[in-house]
Specification:
Low-confidence stretches of chain A: 1-9
CATH superfamily of chain A: Winged helix-like DNA-binding domain superfamily/Winged helix DNA-binding domain
CATH class of chain A: Mainly Alpha
Number of strands of chain A: 2
CATH topology of chain A: Arc Repressor Mutant, subunit A
Number of helices of chain A: 8
Oligomer: homodimer
Strand content of chain A: 5-15%
Distance between the termini of chain A: 37 Å
Order of helices and strands of chain A: HHHHEEHHHH
Number of domains of chain A: 1
Strand order of the largest sheet of chain A: 1-2
Chain lengths: ~140, ~140
DNA sequence: CTCTCCACTTGCATTTTGCAAGTAATTTGA
DNA sequence: TCAAATTACTTGCAAAATGCAAGTGGAGAG
């Protein structure tokens, strides 16, 4: 999937980020995991952007390889699968939220309320913490079922 | 370049961001403009990732259409071209820096010094302001030549 | 024991990419 | 002054990635 020489993708942090986030589908899967509480193949498939099943499988594998997701049996039904965010992907939340704030300010068609950007600017840490708490809530609930 | 229906890409801020940044080459061009002071076709072409010329032309046009860059004659030499960052792309800096911090912490092959993430964590605003000042310096110098 | 659900895989047509070469408008150097 | 170089692209084509539809194999339900 990455045809460049290895050295082309090492060293520079922006280039490293581009290797993961610089792909529409990886980016949106990260959104689904970090912001929308999605954990299963079917949930990812149901996102409105309409990812196709081969691409979804490919990207889930890529994100797992990159250490962004773990693939585990679903606690609710051992025969199905859950993808959980790792610390590495949770640590990406501030960057993701920062991009959301930017998009909210510059996409004239945004449906996000202006209050979102406002509350972020008055208390960025609190906004991030709120999303983090949501993630913990979702995964706690799932793991203890 | 975007085959989805229009409604598929409106509304959600993350999706909006994915439409721009969720492309390796756009992402790296933004880095070159915002972080490395690059402004000309040749400079972009010279980046170590090796973008090909047709893709570069395509992405510069895309970024111009999206309001991220302006295409202007080079003040130093009227026959050549400069691409300047707009306010919209400069506003993207905090998100970009946030991704760099994340990458610095999670890419074991990073060449960025740990001091970068540290100085960001003690004074995020100052770090951003430093990059902003660099951009102004570059563009001031260019425009007044 | 069949039927459905789930998480994929496969095949194939279409699209995008990468690479090499070419071009048109300057501009530089001898 | 005039050939050679530079700049910002465009074009053609082969190779790779994508989208779409259909298929597969295993677990669980009825």
């Amino acid at each position: 999937m990455n045809s460049g020489r290895k050295t082309d993708w090492n060293g520079c942090p922006t280039r490293y980020a581009a290797g993961i986030v610089g792909d529409k589908w990886c980016f949106l899967l990260l959104r689904d995991v970090l912001l929308h509480g999605k954990r299963t193949y079917r949930e990812f498939l149901a996102s409105p952007e309409g990812i196709s099943t081969n691409i979804l499988a490919n990207r889930l594998a890529k994100l797992e390889t990159l250490g962004m997701l773990t693939r585990e049996p679903d606690p609710r039904k051992a025969s199905s699968i859950c993808y959980f965010p790792t610390k590495k992907s949770k640590d990406f939340l501030p960057a993701l939220v920062s991009m959301m704030v930017w998009a909210t300010q510059h996409d004239e068609a945004t449906e996000a309320p202006a209050s979102f950007a406002e509350s972020y600017s008055t208390d960025p840490g609190g906004t991030i913490a709120w999303y983090e708490a949501e993630i913990e809530r979702v995964d706690q609930a799932l793991r203890s079922s």
